[in-house]
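Section handout 9: paired folding examples.
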Amino acid sequence: MKKLTKEEKKLLMRKWKTSQKKEYLLSKDEVEKLFIYLESQLEQTPCQHTRMHTKQWLKNNQPQDKIEDILNEMEEMGGYCDCEVLLNCYEDYDIE
């Protein structure tokens, strides 16, 4: 078997990473808006260890039939309360 060059290895790694990208129910733009909303809410009141603010944002910005699936997706990423949604969810989007 032929030995791969450094550039060939990098290219293969990039292709593999691209193929591993998860498709989320929320777009990057929607996640950014959710995070801005959560940050502003959590600045006013500490996390209540619920997803009260997350659910409110979803109710105002997403179709009703999509909300439960989004909440389940967040749980899979470790988002069981508002602060965990901010800290654990949608890391692939690299939102700062």
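Moving on to protein 2 of 2.
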Amino acid sequence: MKIVVTSIFVQDQDKALEFYSEKLGFVKKEDVPVGEFRWITLVAPDDQDGTELLLEPNDHPAAKEYQEKIFADGIPATMFGVADINQEYKRLLENGVNFTMEPTKMGELTIAVFDDTCGNLIQILQK
């Protein structure tokens, strides 16, 4: 068994697609109408057969409440691994990404946290 799709709640699918593809550099893999929403997934550009990130609408009240509460408490909704966190931090800053935590060493890990503009805090991690 392996993880093939993981999801993140977003306030606006179009805005999220723009942010995750244009600012972060993920590649759109699927974009299929599903009722009033869409099944939109993205993948890493260097692993297009890897795990897909689903931009899940937060339309359900429980999803919206969950998203708002973890954001308010400063809890990242998910994390992405990077090879060089300082280089990635600089690249994302240049792309206009707003960080709430700059790269910080925590034991064997270095993490940073940014706002995805779609209701989530996202952590990047270098092992």
